[in-house]
Specification:
homotetramer; about 120 residues; mainly alpha; globular
């Protein structure tokens, strides 16, 4: 892929990226299939396809995968599918994703105070 | 939550939203836990928590949930968790998410021509 | 498939069924890949493949699928994959599955008293 | 838990174990919720809860967990939930699980010849 001249994350609004998915769905009249229930399943299914890339390797090797352009791109495609369905879910739930994420991060800051959780995984 | 004065999706770049998650993780020194393998599991786990909101209702009722502010916000929190881990995964894989999504959507356009797939779910 | 003369669920012990999977794994020296972490991912991935069969249909149509031999068999194959990895997990955790299931069902009886939960889904 | 005197995997038929779950569901009139679509989601959700026990540890540490009675029992409970919903799915699809697993294992033997796949994970 040649993505050199494409807008990057700091040149792209969340709305623009969401729009790509919305247009795609609208052009195919797929919104009737996109109930929140079906979309929740779809997100989980794409998440499972992303896991496939890491199923039999250990955590260390999975980190090294970021330096292998081909495998990184393959995993990136699955990640894009998860994100695409998340955008569709935000649409189906009539949610502004930026506000939803900001709100949740605020709650996370209260739930996981930095001084208490530094260096300790969240499940402790 | 009072999100009325917060930047919306058309006022927020993908990089800004990713930055919220990156700062949160950095402040807690959690990057050592965030191997792609662990993050893929985390995305799938949060996707499952999102599914919980739709487990026993049918597709129609799940669509109506968008008009119930309380349940919509509860589902939105889980959606935010999925998206947050997707951002962490993009970071771990050193991927620009906008370019990754654009690239995948281009492939989807080739794979699912609108005239052929209009009104038919993608699995046909 | 011709399964007419094969032992059925009331003619097969859990140990016999587990043995089929254990032998298969042993013959391929795959036990080194079968850490509980990897198996947990594998169970989730196969569960997602099972969901694929029900992704875009509503609950009612999914029930009707039981009367369509071909689709039922296709879904059954994915179910077998989930169960197979569950057996492998029981082995990796050195668990007797019958005792584990009996024990959990006892807890479920305490957690969900029949008179209180009759006709109401478990999440209420 | 005291499971010393309980029937073990070689003393329990698959039908007996399935019966425990079927009785539990029947006593609560929950079969109306147990469409294959809902059960597929439920299996995936319980699989995610099982993953939680292994989210932040590496594969090696996850193997060691089998020797920690408390954590092993906790993971076992989630495994029992996955298996319980698999039994419910077999019921909803009117499938004999033993025949379904035997049939799939036969296909796996053809798909993954031992001499070719020995010591190599299945995805190669």
């Amino acid at each position: 892929m040649d993505t050199q001249n494409e807008p990057t994350d700091d040149q792209t609004t969340v709305a623009e990226l969401r729009g790509l998915v919305e247009d795609f769905v609208a052009e195919r009249d797929w919104s009737c299939y996109h109930s929140p229930k079906n979309l929740a399943m779809s997100i989980a299914m794409e998440a499972a396809e992303l896991m496939e890339h890491f199923q039999w390797i250990d955590t260390e090797e999975s980190s090294a995968l970021a330096d292998d352009p081909e495998r990184r791109e393959a995993a990136g495609e699955e990640l894009a599918d998860v994100v695409g369905y998340c955008f569709a879910m935000a649409g189906a739930l009539k949610l502004d994703l930026s506000q939803t994420v900001r709100d949740k991060m605020r709650k996370n800051h209260l739930k996981y105070p930095a001084e208490k959780y530094r260096g300790r995984p969240s499940y402790d």
